[in-house]
Amino acid sequence: MSASYDAAAVAALADQPVSWQDKALPPAWWGRTVREILADRPRLSQLPTPLLTLSGPGMEHNLATLARWCTEHGVELAPHGKTTMAPALWAAQLDAGAWAITLANAFQLGVARAFGVRRVMVANAVISPLQLRWIADQLAADPSFEVLVWADSVRTVEQMEAARSAHVGADARPLDVLVEMGGAHGRTGARDVETALAVAQAIAAAPTLRLAGVAGYEGAIAHGADEAGLEHVRAYLQSLADVHTQLADLYPADVTPVVSAGGSAYFEQVAKVLGPLASTGARVVLRSGAYIAHDDGYYREISPLGSAPRTDGDRLIPSMHGWVRITSQPEPGLAIFDAGKRDLPFDEGMPEPQLLRPRREGESPTPLTGLAVSKLNDQHGFLRFPEGEPPVVIGDELRVGLSHPCTAFDKWGLIPVIDDPDAADPVVVDLVRTFF
Amino acid sequence: MSASYDAAAVAALADQPVSWQDKALPPAWWGRTVREILADRPRLSQLPTPLLTLSGPGMEHNLATLARWCTEHGVELAPHGKTTMAPALWAAQLDAGAWAITLANAFQLGVARAFGVRRVMVANAVISPLQLRWIADQLAADPSFEVLVWADSVRTVEQMEAARSAHVGADARPLDVLVEMGGAHGRTGARDVETALAVAQAIAAAPTLRLAGVAGYEGAIAHGADEAGLEHVRAYLQSLADVHTQLADLYPADVTPVVSAGGSAYFEQVAKVLGPLASTGARVVLRSGAYIAHDDGYYREISPLGSAPRTDGDRLIPSMHGWVRITSQPEPGLAIFDAGKRDLPFDEGMPEPQLLRPRREGESPTPLTGLAVSKLNDQHGFLRFPEGEPPVVIGDELRVGLSHPCTAFDKWGLIPVIDDPDAADPVVVDLVRTFF
């Protein structure tokens, strides 16, 4: 058993038989375990369409790249596990040195507990008495379990304390709470330093809570990477640093305060503004989640290690792809494929046609240009191209690039990992189970 | 065992224990079976947020209403099962007299076969040799199993025939194929009568296929219900009827030809234009799927039995709701709640704030006006309201109306069914398992 998660529980996922419930897999595999299937080194061509795959080497590269980048920049990483909801990928992130797994809510925390994840940051307020009681029970049952939650108002702190003090005694382990600092026109988070300090004081005064640091999310403050947007992000991060500095006397003596920000879009700005706090005793924690899969859309554009890099280090590799089949070619310039909103992400840009799979054995994939996905229905996609000789025919299989890992992973309960998305017929090297 | 599905397999779903994998349920219920849980008549207040629920009486009303409407209008119903992917709801639809279940692809057909659904229309071409072989094996293994698929081009027919004739003998049960008629600027489907006739001739000439009718989807032709849109829909449906009429001599003598169209938006037009074909020996089959849940958005507006009805019969009742909790109130006019793109549909309009749940026992829900959901992130929602005294506070629970059942159901593996969404604390009367 690893120190940071239950390795046996993660490994046991490979002993589960697959079934008709797994839409990524062919009927011939139903009833076999993941381990048995992988022993045959199956090929992509044995799988049905539509399909989502991950690239094994790509993810390994991305894991190592961000781990190294964090080390070099003096920050720690608590990758946001909501991106993948895949305990096997969380395990890989923890094995690569992650300090904790970040999650969004109590359900996701339940999944993490089922796989023994020892340290979790819930990057939200937990208000529900039901969920606060369950977290209290988890803290009581497992002395090694650590959890940090956020609060952005005095009322939130009062509700947390009321639910906890009605449930646990004064000698119970306290719940660690970070003050959440927000920004104008952002999402959650106190909108000014004064409010944030009042929240911190309320946490410090609450008998069953413990003030554990400051947190925020710069990804809600900007959506582009022009200099004005980056300046806006830095100003916000500086306010977060200011709150932390002003809390120095409020932190309990036995706490290493956490200062946390950083999605996958602006983590270089976080390291720049918050990184220096590490030398004053703070633990500076990034929470990037999308980096493990990266993408061919939003994150390719905006990541500091994407197509227009803004920091030193290797570029991340887009490591998730869709595979679709042309099922209709009803009019010039239009083909319909067999994947839709149930299969592929569509909220941060449409899938990008990239490759035509070999039509015959022995051929290579053909790069596609001049095609665009114009629309997805529930179970269909619309592929547009110039009229004239069509670049695809009915029966063709295409690889598409995708934008936004969070809304790609959540459409698949089991995701094949392949050895090389550019290969003529990639080998399936793993099957990753997700829990949404 | 029912004649139309495996009632024992559906009933067995209630014997499965729930777990940390079921995000709709509280930890206190993990390890208990659905049957055990329901025996306690639990209340909505025992469930976590965010949550999706269905209304039991609402769905019963909708099931009975459309079944009656179809009988009165001389058409049959093969409800599109992709909407819910819930075998227990398919069973209710079949019990209400549905002729078949419609599905979108081979994966969904696999789910239907796991629950013994006897007759399935796959409202798409099936091109993949892998999937065609599996369907052939299913037909061979179960003489009572009936499946109909679509084709909209000669190439599609050729690919189907090639895959099948390489796999089954000449004496195998043929695969029933409907010619798919489309319309300009629509989705799949032959764009003119001439092409459709050529497809039909190809099917009729293919040794392992059987021409079984004509199909199409008018929902891809229009998106509004103004008179111009409805006229466009009728013209399209008439072309579908024309194809059927011209196929009279091609249908095998032992086939009752199926003529199928009809989503949940224009089924009254389908009955009007295609219904008369029933008297000439055709089986006219609607495929509406969304009607069972109906909604507070797209379908409320456009359904012939919605808020602006275009046909006789009871109105459908919106029977799915989201339940969310306010977790932050960071600036005037803005509150953040705990549900996002992972929890609630957002592709056909944002959730609609409807009710504030009682803050104290003994109170009633309060109707909400003047609030709007402006945006969903992955795990957060943005609630906007006029500045001034805020209508909600942190900790409040809200009911929201939803738009588009297909993208609501697919976010939940287990969906509580309640007795009355307007009650102060509804009783949970069922837990419906979905398979996406």
From TrEMBL, chains A, B:
A Pfam family matched in the record: D-ser_dehydrat
InterPro entries in alphabetical order: D-amino_acid_metab_enzyme (IPR051466), D-ser_dehydrat-like_dom (IPR026956), D-ser_dehydrat-like_sf (IPR042208), PLP-binding_barrel (IPR029066)
Domain D-serine dehydratase-like: start-end pairs: 319-419
Disordered, as annotated region: 347-367
Source domain of life: Bacteria
Listed name of the protein: Amino acid deaminase
Species: Kribbella lupini
